[in-house]
């Protein structure tokens, strides 16, 4: 099969790799329907995370079951399935508490930009659709496997409620999906922080009522100005930088909540400031598996269409161009077709 391998910053190649095999009775093998490049893949691509030895890339996937291990009964060959970037048995104490992304047997997916993928913990990770969905739904179902599920977690963690005011920090695919989530959860006012016209347009299409272009302290000040000097009820942080986290914390009202889902890089908190802010803080890797049945249903019924975040579609053979386009902000998110 063919799959993407990263060698160094800016150096992603499509290579011929060995076909995945069942390693454990809890594994499944899927044939990839579509996959994609994630914003978090850009951290190593830009040299912000160590790469080490060359290794495969990709953690978002939907596809057709090819083979299952002897302990996998929840899905069968031929079914169309969606899973999470963090695999889970869905039976341990953490899973039962709704935090499947902290499963005691968790494995993070990392080989999905490929023709075929081995899925560990397939019994608890994969959710099959009743029928094979039309190809027009594949991008949105792919979004559910990470960015839509992560955007939903941002809104959930920030405790978005009907009639509330929500701020979304970040206009990448996760931030745009967080706008969808805030809208679905009933936020009356959704303020998207974005400097890019194409992303602002999509944010408004997804439900944003206001756009703020300022960043950092100026951005937080603008949020206070828009909320009568108080701040927002919920802030959804979808970037992961020190500036975006500070901006999020300073945009929330006393008693408000910040849901942070951007993987933190060089982020540190001032304990005294946090203590006196009365702002709640919750985040981490999104428990996508918790939300999969609901989000799949919302996609299939047409309630949400997160697949619109894919504004560039390429064959898997051009995966390097997909990375470059996202790195240069020529694409919000690149869909790859094996």
Largest sheet: 7 strands, mixed
| General form | globular
Could you give the order of the helices and strands?
EEEHEEEHEHEHHEHEHEHEHEHEHEHE
Low-pLDDT sequence parts: none
Oligomer: single chain
Mean of pLDDT: 97
Please estimate the helix content: 25-40%
Terminal-residue CA separation: 10 Å
Number of strands: 16
- C-alpha Rg, in Å? 19 Å
β-strand amount:
15-25%
Question: Pairing-aware structural class of the strands and helices?
Answer: alpha/beta
List the total number of helices: 12
Account of the protein in words:
The protein is 30% helix and 24% strand. The chain starts with a strand and ends with a strand. With 338 residues, the protein is an alpha/beta fold. The model has no long low-confidence stretch (mean pLDDT 97). The protein is built from twelve helices and 16 strands. The chain is globular. Strands 3, 5, 6, 7, 8, 15 and 16 form a seven-stranded mixed sheet that branches. Helix 6 runs parallel beside helix 7 and helix 8 runs parallel beside helix 9. Strand 9, helix 6 and strand 10 form a beta-alpha-beta unit.
């Amino acid at each position: 099969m063919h799959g993407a391998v990263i060698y160094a910053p800016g150096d992603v190649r499509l290579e011929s790799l060995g076909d995945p095999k069942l390693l454990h009775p809890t594994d499944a093998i899927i044939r990839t329907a579509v996959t994609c490049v994630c914003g978090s893949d850009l951290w190593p691509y830009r040299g912000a995370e160590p790469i080490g030895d060359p290794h495969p890339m990709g953690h978002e996937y939907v596809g057709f079951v090819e083979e299952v291990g002897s302990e996998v009964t929840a899905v069968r060959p031929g079914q169309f399935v969606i899973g999470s970037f963090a695999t889970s048995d869905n039976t341990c104490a953490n899973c039962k508490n709704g935090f499947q992304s902290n499963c005691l047997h968790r494995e993070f997916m990392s080989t999905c930009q490929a023709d075929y993928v081995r899925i560990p913990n397939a019994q608890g990770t994969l959710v099959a659709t009743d029928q094979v969905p039309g190809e027009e739904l594949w991008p949105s179902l792919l979004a559910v496997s990470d960015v839509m599920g992560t955007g939903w977690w941002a809104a959930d963690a920030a405790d978005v409620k009907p009639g509330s005011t929500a701020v979304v920090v970040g206009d990448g695919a996760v931030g745009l999906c967080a706008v969808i989530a805030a809208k679905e959860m009933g936020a009356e006012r959704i303020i998207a922080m974005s400097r890019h016209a194409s992303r602002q347009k999509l944010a408004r299409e997804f439900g944003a009522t206001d756009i703020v272009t300022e960043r950092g302290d100026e951005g937080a000040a603008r949020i206070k100005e828009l909320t009568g000097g108080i701040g927002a009820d919920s802030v959804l942080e979808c970037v992961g930088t020190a500036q975006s986290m500070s901006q999020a914390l300073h945009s929330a009202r006393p008693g408000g909540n910040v849901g942070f889902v951007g993987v933190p890089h060089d982020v540190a908190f001032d304990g005294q400031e946090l203590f006196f802010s009365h702002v709640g803080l919750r985040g981490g890797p999104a428990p996508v598996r918790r939300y999969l049945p609901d989000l799949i249903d919302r996609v299939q019924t047409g309630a949400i269409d997160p697949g619109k975040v894919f504004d560039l579609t390429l064959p898997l053979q051009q995966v390097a161009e997909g990375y470059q386009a996202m790195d240069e902000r020529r694409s919000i998110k690149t869909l790859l077709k094996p």
